[in-house]
Design goal:
heterodimer; A: about 160 residues; alpha/beta; 5-stranded mixed β-sheet; globular; B: about 400 residues; mainly alpha; Cytochrome-c3 Hydrogenase, chain B; 3-stranded antiparallel β-sheet; 8 strands; about 10% strand
């Protein structure tokens, strides 16, 4: 009835990926796992394939830009399991220019267009994506609008 | 489904459908690769209606952003601003008074019926049944008149506020809604008579646009499209919000996984929405219309004009807005098109740091290629119709 997950399952994820997880936090009832972006693929495969977790529904994939941090880009995955009815948020924190993270579009087809949107808006390159083109903006557009250094009025 | 002799790649024809096309329900550009009249691939190009909602949200205070969500899915009326209100209320731990919650439910369910009526009208019109279009829009007029009575608007409303509603419903609202509840079931019977067992309708919708449950879940499809594939996922039941747990409602499902199954699901959803509205109207409690929380409730004008401190508070409330605590949350509602979610990151300032809108139509549109392969061009119109997308929603 709420977007939560049993603490022992979070422990399980923590045990499996202790060296790559940066932080596990809880705000209200929702749990967020922050990890280094280089290991996103393994963690996502674990979340999908592990029987107790079975996160089959990728609700949302979002990008974010935190220019004050060293790992300045972030990809946020919101997962829900239809079988076990639990919810988890995964945040992959990326550093580098251009920011790169592995694709998960072969695991969840929903990620196909959502990763294209994150690329379009933030310039995050999803390695292994079959068709990483812009989704909303024109193919000839230069710049990534949702980055914090891109002005609201746009550039010429 | 595919012809016995497959045409070689070089003899396949690519044609454009859209972005200006009466049956794409908006500015959607499709490139269809055909062999003969059979579709072998569909490439979607979206973004013609992209307005940069998320960028705008990062630059406006929360209450300044309130009129924007209803422009996303402009046919679902009040459900989108309700989602934004619920997200921010959750972030700030504001409890909405029961009367306001019930009014939100009534208006949201009326929006759902209005949206499904428009879906039925345009879906039937695209397939050729023009009479249904005329009938459905007659009912939609009744709903839009109710909206106009309460909010002043027919398509965009600016009626919900954080913590409740802008003002109470006018006298005569419950009677008007009851009149609608009384009239609607017989009208629904008219649509069923025209379509449900109609031979042409069955030929055009049965086994068209097959989407299995596993594919639907994998593509992130939600809403009636997912329930038409037999998956029982309805946000109103999974994560009840705004007093939905107090209403007795069934979630219609269909195992057919095709266009006809989704048609049956949406028809039944309209009936279930009517049930919810009936229960809400019967039990509409008295009370406040907005939470008594100084962060969201503006003081009364008389007090503000007569008392200096109240005047200052009024001005500060409007000019500076409120600041939710730093943190992040994901909150979703069951919009008529599917799951509408808001992922909000707040840094403690009056403007959102990141507001990602999880729009249902974008992911509902994604399996179009999978569903269309092997079908005729005429079927693509039926498949787009059954997905029930709104381009304002897809493109944000």
């Amino acid at each position: 009835m709420s977007r939560s997950i049993a603490p022992k399952l979070v422990e399980k994820i923590k045990l499996e990926f202790d060296d790559v997880i940066l932080d596990i936090s809880r705000f209200q009832e929702q749990t967020t796992v922050c990890l280094k972006a280089e290991h996103t693929r393994q963690v996502c495969e674990f979340l999908k394939n592990e029987k107790d977790l079975d996160f089959n529904l990728l609700l949302d994939l979002a990008g974010a830009h935190y220019p004050d941090r060293e790992r300045d880009f972030e990809v946020i995955y919101n997962y829900y399991s239809l079988t076990h009815k639990h919810f988890l948020r995964l945040k992959a924190q990326i550093k580098g220019d251009p920011p790169r993270v592995a694709t998960i579009s072969d695991l969840w087809k929903a990620a196909d267009w959502l990763e294209r949107e994150a690329y379009d808006m933030y310039g995050i390159i999803f390695e292994g994506h079959p068709n990483l083109k812009r989704l909303f903006l024109d193919d000839s557009w230069i710049g990534f609008p949702l980055r914090k250094d891109y002005p609201l009025e746009g550039r010429d | 489904m595919c012809p016995a002799k497959v045409m070689p790649e070089k003899r396949r024809v690519k044609i454009h459908m859209g972005p200006q096309h009466p049956s794409t329900h908006g500015v959607l550009h499709l490139v269809l690769t055909l062999h003969g009249e059979r579709i072998s691939k569909v490439e979607c190009e979206v973004g013609f209606l992209h307005r940069g909602m998320e960028k705008i949200a990062e630059n406006l205070q929360y209450q300044q952003f309130l009129p924007y969500p209803e422009r996303l899915d402009y046919l679902s009326g009040l459900v989108h601003p309700m989602a934004l209100c619920l997200t921010v209320e959750k972030m700030m731990d504001i409890e909405v008074p029961k009367r306001a919650a019930y009014i939100r439910v009534i208006l949201a369910e009326l929006s759902r019926i209005a949206s499904h009526l428009l879906w039925l009208a345009t879906h039937a019109l695209d397939i050729g049944a023009m009479t249904v279009f005329m009938y459905a829009f007659r009912e939609r007029e009744a709903i839009l008149n109710i909206f106009e009575m309460v909010t002043g608007g027919r398509m965009t409303f600016n009626y919900f506020r954080f913590g409740g509603c802008k003002q109470d419903v006018p006298a005569g609202f419950v009677e008007r809604v009851n009149q609608f509840i009384y009239d609607f079931p017989s009208r629904m019977q008219d649509y069923e008579t025209l379509l449900t067992n109609n031979r042409i309708w069955l030929l055009r919708t049965r086994d068209i646009g097959h989407l299995s449950a596993e594919d639907a879940i994998n593509y992130g499809v939600t809403g009636s499209t997912l329930r038409g594939s037999g998956v029982d996922y309805d946000v109103r039941k999974e994560f009840p919000y705004s007093c939905y747990e107090e209403f007795d409602v069934e979630v219609p499902l269909s195992d057919r996984c095709d266009t006809y199954g989704r048609y049956l699901v949406r028809l039944e959803e309209m009936r279930q929405s009517l049930r919810i509205i009936k229960q809400a109207c019967q039990n509409l409690p008295e009370g406040d219309i907005i939470a008594d929380d100084p962060r969201v409730k503006l003081p009364k004008k008389e007090e503000a004009f007569n008392n200096m401190e109240t005047m200052i508070r009024y001005c500060c409330s409007v000019m500076e807005g409120f600041s939710p605590p730093a943190g992040e949350t994901y909150m979703s509602v069951e919009a008529p098109k599917g799951e509408l979610g808001y992922y909000l990151v707040s840094d403690g300032s009056p403007k959102p740091y990141r507001l990602k809108i999880r729009v249902p139509s974008l992911l509902n549109l994604a399996p179009l290629d999978l569903m269309s392969r092997g079908h005729l061009i005429a079927d693509i119109v039926a498949i787009i119709g059954t997905l029930d997308i709104v381009l304002g929603d897809v493109d944000k």
